[in-house]
Write a structure and sequence with these properties.
The structure holds 2 protein chains of 2 kinds.
Chain A (H helix, E strand, L loop, with lengths): L11 H5 L15 E7 L5 E7 L1 H5 L3 E6 L25 E2 L5 E7 L2 H10 L1 E6 L29 E3 L2 H7 L2 E9 L11 E7 L2 E6 L4 H12 L6 E4 L15 H13 L3 E4 L15 E9 L5 E12 L23 E10 L13 H19 L3 H7 L4 E2 L4 E2 L5 H12 L12 E2 L2 E13 L5 E8 L4 E5 L8 H13 L6 E5 L15 H25 L13 E3 L2 E4 L2 E4 H7 L4 E8 L3 H5 L3 E13 L4 E12 L6 H20 L30 E6 L18 H4 L1 H13 L10 H4 L2
Helix pairs in contact in A: 7-16, 10-11, 14-16
Chain B lengths: L4 E3 L4 H8 L4 E4 L5 H6 L7 E4 L8 E4 L2 E5 L4 H6 L1 H6 L1 H8 L4 H6 L2 H5 L52 H6 L3 E5 L5 E5 H4 L18 E8 L2 H4 L1 E6 L10 E10 L2 E10 L6 E2 L1 H7 L6 H10 L12 H18 L1
Parallel strand pairs in B: 1-3, 2-3
Antiparallel strand pairs in B: 4-5, 5-8, 6-7, 6-8, 9-10, 10-11, 11-12
Helix pairs in contact in B: 11-12, 12-13
Classes of the chains: A alpha+beta, B alpha+beta.
């Protein structure tokens, strides 16, 4: 079995030697460069453009504005629908909105021309920041979780239970606007040939790009080819097809030449979504025995003008299943302000929601004078009480005990401020993690070629997580061939269709499709062999693949010989899969327990994470090496969420102040401590044939609350707002 | 980014003459300038590349340590004479930027790094420093990282570099070569102008004037010195507050002391009142406490950076504790 082993990344060597080509690196002859022009006011209307100066600049081919862009059809997209801005009208609803695009023969000239375009505006009043005073603008989302769920959910009678609860905790928590900031910016090269268009673009969903462009330009899907072999980080901001991809195709059509559009780093803050700011009001009621009597979680999530689309950070979905409790009420509201459209960002909902819920759980444990872990165990959910379904698998108890033992949780002195190392304040905190196991329909193809190699193909994406490698592992296992023969291909719309790579769903979606394709291929090879004189009289069902030979009792013929005799250079087969009845009958989640140790210098207020121990239950770990990397990376992401990441918005103008990655902080190596990751390796057969659950988002979910709880333990100060900064703990 | 022509002079005199042309800009390591150009914060039509000038040497000239302006940050940080004569400068450099940037950035260029104020660095905002008279939205806006010392009603942008902080504390001077062929030296602290109502004029440099060297005098308090930097992450971040402290003790009495702060002022900020509190006095924890309290004399905190008052005092205390330990 290759599955489970720490097989080295198939794409690793290419990446570290520069051989992996990313979207902007494809060499398309005659390609022009496009640079976006963005608004400098938060609200109003464009009254005119001064483009003459820009048009006269050297190398400039076109300045495209809403006045000459030409009409596009209304967008339809596979994922979140983004309806603006596509240079279709002059309305401005946020600062940094695309208002024009400059096209020139070099990037630098296009950039110079873009900065020379003058836009005249009639400004109007704007609300640029969601704070308590803006909550009066809140409304119920219309498309909560893509319209699949209700924003308001309850069971029992939360009001009455809370009113009667002997111990109560009530608090408001806040998480900031955060931007994904992948290393690779959004980039698209678009090339038209007649009524067909090919795009090289950086995306988490080539199918979505294909669908979006087909709809925008009124083309059949087959007329749009999308290529994306590598993604230099996505974290959710490449899940949708954002306007720059469409604008690149629009510009290429406008100038009649291929066009490359790379979003600049500052523009990455206004072009492809962000994690919206949330304000979350939580109240918990408990008995003195430590049993939860009620949970209420009201989430407010910053939204753009609804003209742009809709997104609501689903902070309270996890609250419905995290603990056993009879009386639960959860609501979600969105608050429109003059900002761009928010979107999914790694562990959307769970990470921001669990910061609030797990902080509140820690506050309640403290109020009850209970150990935080014991309090969680006292309220352990044996089944999903909201969906009223059993969990497909839940290894959380084992996660708690293994991580706690490894961390040494028993040695924790519960009194805040009691654990010191000289002048340094030491804090220990913990939190629960969970994330849904998502699975989507997927198709795959396997090709055997006459040179003895096997190709496995699917229109999925590898976000850097190891998809190429696990695809090859899976195909090699199912076919029973040496993995050295097998290579994977993905990220091309000419391959069998795959789903968007988001929601930690890729592995669980594509591997069953590969298994189906492998089975179909084996059947095809057996049928082919049955026509071979060596297998005369042998029914196809009795013919097996062994190594790279076809065999039946007493007979053995190399595959390539069978193919040659049939005159075939390739043999291929396709397979597909979709979530089945077992998946639908269960509540499917991965789980984890996360423990953090932090050290605070009280003179400086600096918080350093010194140790994180986590144990996760992710079903079967498909690749020990890439799986571990995913888990470590998620934890680092969580450290950033806890202590560093925050997009600063100027209230007066709604413009982002730290739109670069020197001033928008994410952790550097020096911030990353010893991280210990353990897994409960137990296949979850309800979620898919191989029993893998997602691992991409889960590991960050509990990190921010574990750190926040550790800050309380170190200082006695409860910080209910992320990120936690020096000024929050400075003595 | 605007198109420009590039000149690569081989003598300082030729560089200074070329640099005196309006719309000319010197470039050395380019680690800051390239960002400013790319983001349309600055533009130049003539770029005078200093790469070929013979200004890279670090040497001792009797009591004076001479740091060539084109020595890289990495070279200065690791140089044995720098470590011996002014160790706080080495520490400050190693606490700055990243190894890659320190391999490119130069000593002279680092002195002239421009503010990280987000309003300055985005032409989509008004900014008195970038566009004189356009206004300062930072004072009422996102001012967490901005100055509490030396600001004006026009500008509260901090000078962000670490390196000049210990140099100011050490009474360093800069050697300048003018377009007229004359050289002069200026106290480093006086190289920087306070913003007043002309925040766009940041230094006393004349058109074409090239920084050729940094001159550091020898002093016991420069040799016994340290640099303490507080930042939002453990590497690759600008200072929220930093302090360079140097001291000379004789029988428990402070004979000489030098203190300067970074991350809190519109220029590297010499802490005169704190020094005066210490000088000639017998060192004690209480005295250190008094000196730390005087560090924020005249401080004007803003809505989001008031914490820097406490932070600066604590940093002064810690730096003094460290250097006297």
């Amino acid at each position: 079995m290759y599955i489970g082993q720490g097989i080295v990344r198939q794409d690793g060597r290419l990446k570290v030697t520069g051989g992996a080509r990313y979207a902007a690196e494809f060499d398309v002859p005659g390609c022009l460069h496009a640079v976006l022009v963005q608004s400098t006011i938060p609200a109003g209307a464009i009254t005119g453009y001064d483009t003459a100066q820009a048009e006269r600049m050297p190398g400039v081919v076109a300045i495209i504005t809403h006045q000459n862009a030409g009409a596009l059809n209304q967008h339809k997209a596979a994922q979140q629908t983004v309806t603006h801005p596509f240079l279709q009208d002059g309305r401005i609803v946020y600062n940094g909105q695309h208002v024009a695009v400059a096209v020139a023969d070099t990037f630098e000239r296009a950039e110079a021309a873009a900065s020379a375009v003058r836009v005249r505006y009639a400004p109007s009043e704007a609300v640029t920041v969601m704070d308590e005073s803006a909550l009066s603008r809140a409304y119920k989302p219309k498309q909560f979780q893509n319209g699949e769920k209700s924003p308001d959910v309850s069971r029992g009678d939360e009001d009455a239970a809370f009113a009667g609860a002997p111990v109560r905790v009530e608090a408001t928590y806040e998480t900031p606007v955060e931007h994904h900031n992948p290393m690779e910016p959004h980039a698209t090269i678009a090339m038209w040939r007649g009524d067909t268009v090919a795009v090289w673009t950086s995306t988490q969903g080539i199918s979505g790009v294909q669908e979006t462009l087909a709809s925008a330009f009124g083309l059949p899907k087959e007329s749009v080819t999308v290529v994306c072999p590598y993604v230099g980080g996505g974290f959710g901001c490449k899940g949708n097809t954002w306007p720059p991809a469409t604008i690149a195709a629009l510009a290429a059509r406008h100038v009649g030449r291929p066009v490359k559009l790379v979003v600049t780093r500052p523009q990455m803050f206004t072009s492809n979504g962000y994690r919206p700011k949330t304000i979350q009001k939580i109240r918990l009621g408990a008995g003195r025995d430590g049993r939860l009597l009620s949970i209420r979680h009201d989430g407010f999530s910053q939204m753009s003008d609804p003209m742009l689309g809709e997104f609501s950070e689903p902070v309270g979905v996890v609250t419905q299943m995290a603990y056993s409790c009879r009386n639960v009420a959860v609501t979600h509201r969105v608050v429109p302000v003059n900002q761009g459209l928010p979107t999914y960002m790694r562990a959307p909902g769970e990470s921001s929601g669990m910061f609030a819920l797990e902080s509140a759980m820690d506050e309640m444990a403290h109020a009850l004078r209970m150990d935080p872990l014991a309090f969680r165990l006292a309220n352990y959910a044996e089944r999903d009480e909201q969906k009223d379904k059993p969990f497909a698998s839940k290894g959380l108890r084992e996660c708690y005990s293994r991580a706690a033992d490894r961390f040494g949780w028993r040695q924790r002195n519960p009194t805040p401020g009691s654990m010191r190392d000289g002048r340094i304040l030491v804090g220990w905190g913990m939190a629960t993690s969970t994330y849904p196991t998502n699975r989507r329909p997927c198709h795959a193809r396997i090709v055997v070629r006459s040179d003895g190699t096997v190709l496995v193909q699917s229109g999925v994406q590898d976000l850097g997580t190891g998809t190429y490698t696990i695809m090859a592992q899976c195909a090699a296992d199912r076919l029973g061939v040496d993995i050295a023969r097998v290579s994977a291909q993905l990220g091309d719309s000419r391959f069998p269709q795959g789903p968007v790579s988001g929601g930690s769903a890729t592995a669980a979606s594509v591997l069953p499709a590969i298994e189906a394709a492998a089975d179909a291929l084996l059947a095809r090879l057996a049928a082919l062999a049955a026509l071979d004189p060596h297998f005369a009289q042998v029914p196809p069902a009795d013919i097996r693949l062994d190594g790279f030979d076809l065999t039946a009792p007493g007979r053995r013929v190399p595959v390539l010989q069978v193919m040659a005799r049939a005159g075939l250079h390739t043999v291929d087969a396709e397979g597909s899969s979709a979530p089945g009845d077992a998946y639908k009958a269960h509540s499917c989640h991965s789980f984890g327990a996360q423990f953090a140790e932090i050290r605070i210098d009280p003179d400086f207020g600096t918080i350093r994470v010194s140790r994180i121990v986590s144990c996760f239950e992710v079903g079967r770990l498909l690749n020990a090496r890439t799986g571990r990397s995913q888990l470590l990376g998620g934890i680092v992401f969580g450290i950033g969420m806890a202590l560093q990441e925050e997009t600063l918005v100027d209230r007066a103008t709604g413009r982002i102040v730290n739109s670069n990655i020197a001033d928008y902080h994410v952790p550097v190596n020096a911030d990353v401590p010893d991280i210990e990751v353990m897994t409960v390796d137990a296949p979850d057969l309800a979620t898919g044939a191989l029993g893998a659950k997602g691992a991409g988002e889960l590991p960050m979910v509990g990190v921010a609350p574990a750190i926040a709880n550790a800050v309380f333990h170190a200082t006695g100060r409860r910080v209910r707002k992320l990120p936690i900064r020096v000024e929050d703990v400075l003595a | 980014m605007q198109e420009f022509s590039r000149l690569v002079p081989t003598t300082t005199q030729a560089a200074a003459r070329a640099g005196a042309v309006p719309q000319a800009s010197f470039i050395a390591g380019g680690t800051d300038l390239m960002q400013l150009w790319k983001n349309n914060v600055q533009a130049a039509s003539l770029v005078v590349d200093l790469d070929r000038l013979d200004l890279r040497r670090i040497s001792l000239d009797g009591p004076t340590l001479r740091i060539g302006a084109l020595a890289t940050m990495a070279e200065v940080a690791e140089h044995p004479d720098v470590k011996r004569r002014v160790p706080a400068a080495s520490e400050a450099l190693l606490a700055a930027a990243s190894p890659q940037i320190r391999n490119m950035g130069t000593a002279g260029g680092n002195l002239l790094q421009r503010t990280r104020c987000g309003y300055f660095r985005d032409p989509g905002f008004a900014c008195n420093k970038r566009e004189p008279g356009s206004g300062c939205p930072a004072i009422a806006g996102e001012n967490r990282e901005l100055a509490i010392l030396g600001g004006s009603g026009s500008c509260i942008a901090t000078q962000p570099s670490d390196f000049p902080v210990p140099l100011v504390a050490a009474d360093a001077r800069v050697e300048l070569h003018g377009a007229d062929g004359q050289t002069r030296t200026v106290e480093l602290e006086q190289l920087y102008r306070l913003p007043g109502d002309t925040p766009h004029i940041e230094t006393v440099l004349r058109p074409g004037e090239v920084i050729t060297a940094i001159l550091v005098p020898d002093a016991p308090a420069n040799r016994r010195a340290t640099y303490v930097k507080v930042r939002d992450r453990q590497s690759y971040a600008y200072a929220l507050a930093s302090v360079a402290a140097g001291i000379e003790l004789q029988g428990g009495v402070v004979r000489d002391v030098r203190l300067a702060a970074g991350g809190v002022g519109t220029r590297p900020w010499r802490l005169d009142a704190s020094e005066a509190t210490l000088r000639g006095q017998r060192l004690s924890p209480a005295l250190i406490e008094q000196a730390a309290a005087r560090a924020t004399d005249g401080a004007q905190p803003h809505a989001k950076n008031a914490f820097k008052v406490t932070l600066l005092r604590n940093t002064v205390r810690r730096a003094l504790q460290a250097v006297t330990a």
